[in-house]
Amino acid sequence: MIGLEFMLFQLVMQWGRWQLFRFGTLTGTNFVLRRKVLEEVNGWDVYALAEDAELTARIYSKGYEIPVVDDSRTWEQEPETFYTFWKQRTRWLLGNLYLISKLFRDRELRGGRNFLNNLQLVSVYYVFVLFVIASDVWFVMGLLNRLTIPYTIPYTIPLLLLWFETLWIYTSEIIAAEVIDNEISFKNALFAFLMYFTYAQLWILLTLRSYFLRLKNQSKEIVWDKTPRF
Fold first, then answer.
1. Cα(197)–Cα(85) distance, integer angstroms
2. What is the pLDDT of residues 94-152, one digit of tens each?
3. Coil vs helix vs strand at 148
4. Distance, CA of 215 to CA of 35 (rounded, Å)
5. What distance in Å separates the CA atoms of residue 39 and residue 41, rounded to the nearest whole number?
């Protein structure tokens, strides 16, 4: 599921944004940066746990572009246990929440091409989570047949039917990425379907935990929680 998530992000989101808007982001793995650019933006932010996302914002604030090369390939080790995954993603979310707060404080990071970057951050770490919660409520209410949507009197659309349509869109996006990367199979298609009920739901818990830790540890020293490798 981690692999399918990255496949969707790189092949659909990243490449699509570059084709449509000439906009890309640093992704931590597989990127090349000119030294003079790094020096111009005053190096790394030592408080940024999501250093790639934070550096992306400052690079765009200086008017540079970050091209996306769709046929480049790298391999990386992903978490082998749930606990390792949980700690890694908590660090990522804390890093991006720090960046979002920084965007509100620094006017220079809000203008120009950073608009798309900021829109993505808010969409992923606020809108997406709210939509998953709303979808869960929608599903339960549909099962209980407590809500319907007026369509053409005297007909109504069952709420559960619309929920299944959105589930199909979610699954189709992931399957489309599998097709593009020649990774389509029955197993991967099944995982794409199951991801909504498992992987996507984890974002609710991870986000709530990250909000809590962000508020709790604002005055404490930032600690880089390194992901164990094998």
1. 17
2. 888 888 888 888 888 876 678 877 888 888 878 888 888 888 888 887 777 776 666 55
3. strand
4. 35
5. 5
Query: For residue range 204-227, what is the model confidence (pLDDT) as tens digits?
Result: 999 898 888 888 876 566 667 777
User: What pTM, to 2 d.p., does this model score?
Assistant: 0.83
Residue 166, token pair as written in the block? 């959105």
Residue among 128, 112, 104, 90 at smallest CA distance from 9 = 128
Asked if omega into 154 is within 30° of 0 (cis), the reply is yes
Neighbour-count burial of 155, counting CB atoms closer than 10 A to its CB (0-12 exposed, 13-18 middle, 19+ buried): exposed
What count of other Cβ atoms lies within 10 Å of the Cβ of residue 136?
15
Residue spans of the domains in the chain: they are 2-70+79-216
Q: In this structure, what token pair is assigned to residue 202? A: 């984890």
Contact criterion met (CB below 8 Å) for 189 and 175: yes
CA 188/CA 219 separation, integer angstroms: 43
